[in-house]
Amino acid sequence: MTHGEAAAHEGDERPTDRVAMTAFQKLSEAWQLSTDQQLQLLGSPGRSTFFKWKKDGGSLPRDTVERVSHLLAIYKALQILVPDPPQADSWIKKKSSYFKGNSALDVMLNGQVVDILKVRQYLDVQRGG
Question: CB of 65 within 8 A of CB of 20?
Fold first, then answer.
C-alpha cells in the first residue's frame, strides 16, 4: 500500500461511505432497530465513531461497508418477497423454525458477517436466486 492509499483509508470519506450510512439509517428506521442493535450489525464500532458517521459521515471500514451491503440486500429481498412494506419490515423480528426458533435479527446480532450472510442466503433461496 502506498502512502497515498494509506492516507485515503485513514480519514477521507468515499462517496459510497455516505450512501451506505444514509441507506443504513433508513433501514434501521424501517426495522425499528435500537442504537445497540445498529452498533452490533455494523460490527461494534465505538459509540462516538458511530454517531460521527451518522452526523458527519467519515471513512467506513471495509467490513462495515460489506455488512451494510448484505443488510441492504436483505431489505430488498424482503420487499420483493413480502409485498406489504410493514409486514416485510417486521419479518426480521419474527421467530422462525428455520433459525431454530430465533428471528433473523437474533441471528444477525450474533455479530459476525457470516451471521448476516446466513439470513441473506436464506432469503436469496426463497426468492429463487
Answer: yes
CA neighbours closer than 13 Å in the CB half-sphere of residue 42: 26
Say how far apart CA 53 and CA 31 lie, in whole Å: 19
- Contact yes or no for 117/70 (Cβ under 8 A): yes
pTM: 0.85
Q: List, in sequence order, every residue forming a beta bridge with 95; answer none if it has no partner.
A: 103
- Facing residues of 103 across strands? 95
What would the pLDDT profile of 27-76 be if each residue is shown by its tens digit? 999 999 999 999 999 999 999 999 989 888 778 999 999 999 999 999 99
How far is it, in rounded angstroms, from Cα 35 to Cα 48? 12
Amino acid identity for residue 81 in this structure: L
- Expressed in angstroms, the distance from the first to the final Cα of the chain is 37
Cell numbers at residue 55, please? Answer: 452526523
Q: Which residues pair with 102 in a beta bridge?
A: 96
For residue 106, the SS3 value is helix
Q: What's the rounded Cα separation, in Å, for the pair 69 and 99?
A: 21
d(CA 17, CA 36): 20
